[in-house]
Amino acid sequence: MSDYMFMLESRLSAEQNRVLEQVIGAAGASGANLFLTGGGMRDMLGGFRIRDLDFSVEGDALKLARMLEPQGARILALDENRRSAELVFPSGVTAQVALSRKERYSKTGGQPQVAPAAIQEDLRGRDFTINAMALSLNRASRGLLLDPTNGLADLGYREMRSTHPYIFHDDPARMLRLVRLRVRLGFTVEERTATQYHNARAAQLESLIPARALGAELQQIALEPSPSETVQALAQDGLLPLFSPALAGSKLNLPALVRLEKAERLVESANLAPGPKFARFYHALTAKLTPKEKSALLKAAEIPNAEIDALRSIEPQARKLEQALESARVKKPSHVYRVLAEAPVGVMVFVLANSAERTVQERIRNYLQKYLPAMQEAPPAEWEALERLRGTAKYSRTLQAFLAARLDVRPRKQAEPEPEPPGEVADVPMARGRAR
Fold it and tell me: Which of 71, 147, 166, 425 has the fewest CB atoms in 10 Å of its CB?
């Protein structure tokens, strides 16, 4: 095993490693050459958390994506032009499988003309050098690092550098990506790349970013560790009005985004996955906009219908959960546990970030910081015995008793031992005069 393969496998979660093996197996069966590329490579080599797996294929990428469906993968989106597919696996791991390609742009911001290309040519046509590295996952060369633009050195310098002079003219959405990655990674922008950026801004190329690209970038901002910092940086660079001119001044609700980030971190600290983030992010971002302004933003960014449906459903779900937590029947820790254990985690995050009710806030925090850890300490055998009753008439009553025994019973205070009676003390004659 090469050092880079060892590094990759040690940096991936167990679920990501399983997905890696599935994709490698499918590529081998299809006869396609497979490479790990993009953000996954950057994050592995830079020591960052690997969020997504990006694969490039010298061969039929969409065929490979469909080969993964019988193994549980679900295709979230297809780009027929670029021959790429966004996938999510049953474990929640997300991945992109894309054709190794060369792109030619006839006009700024337009759809590129795409042709299959060798992986080295694909990498040279990417946006920044830190995103232009690949790791071979093929049997004969597994673990071979491909770095035609010297991105590994730029990672070491913590610097963002363009792969060629026309990255913003070809695809002006890369200006948004530069700001987002600069904030997340804490990198500086190399001098010539900064000049290219400012020249593109002077030519107002940002006005040519297509709606679909704005929407894709807004969804990526929602996934950032600190969306509030990214939004603030976009506002400072004058790019936030691309999404909505109303997102300025008092209508730019950064405090709501910060509250959301804190709620998500608290949930993640309890080892719970907060689930899809866009609906919560959009609600916080647009909390001070009018309904007309919100609709205009959705249209300007061509937000998919599935995301719009999630936006419309999250507030009713949140109100229902908030009412359940305020119910007079919810009195004990075991009651709180049952309500929140059955609630979607994403809705719980939303309520924690937005509820003005102190009781609701305290009950969610107690669930995450006290009740959930206490129940996780219960012996596995007891959980297994309880699960065997699921679906029977006894299950609900037995579950309540199981929870009550661990959450509702206050530990008895140990009685303090009575002080021992003092022993007999011999009479000591008092000294007269000064002590000696």
Answer: 425
Query: Residue written as tokens 């299959």?
Result: 116
User: Which tens digit of pLDDT belongs to each residue from 39-78?
Assistant: 999 999 999 999 889 999 999 999 999 999 999 999 998 9
The domain total for the chain is: 1
How is residue 321 written in tokens? 């959960």
Judged on CB neighbours under 10 Å (0-12, 13-18, 19+), 194 is middle
How far apart are the C-alpha atoms of 270 and 272, rounded to whole Å? 6
Residue 416's pLDDT is 62
Closest of 263, 405, 413, 272 to residue 333, by C-alpha: 405
Q: Which backbone phi and psi does 386 adopt, to 5 degrees? A: -65, -40
pLDDT band at 436 (very low <50, low <70, confident <90, very high): very low
Decide if 215 is inside a domain: no
> Residue 92 maps to which CATH number?
3.30.460.10
- pTM score, whole prediction: 0.87
Cα distance between residue 186 and residue 44, in whole Å: 16
The answer to whether 148 and 120 are in contact (CB under 8 A) is yes
Query: What string of DSSP letters covers 141-182?
Result: TTT-EE-TT-HHHHHHHTEE-BSSTTHHHH-TTHHHHHHHHH
Q: What are phi and psi of 375, to 5 degrees?
A: -75, -30
Do 44 and 7 touch, CB atoms closer than 8 A?
yes
Is 340 a member of any domain?
no
User: 15 vs 5, 99, 201, 417, CA distance in Å?
Assistant: 16, 24, 41, 53
Cβ-count burial 39-68 (b if 16+ within 10 Å, e if not) = bbbbbbbbeeebebbbbbbbebbbebbbbb
What is the torsion angle, in degrees rounded to the nearest 10, for the CA atoms of residue 308, residue 310, residue 313 and residue 319?
-120
pLDDT tens column, 340-394: 999 999 999 999 999 999 999 999 999 999 999 999 888 888 888 888 888 888 8
Taking residues 403-411, what's their average pLDDT?
82
Has residue 33 been placed in a domain?
A: yes
Least confident of 82-86, 129-133, 391-395, 428-432: 428-432
**Is there a domain that residue 416 lies in?**
no
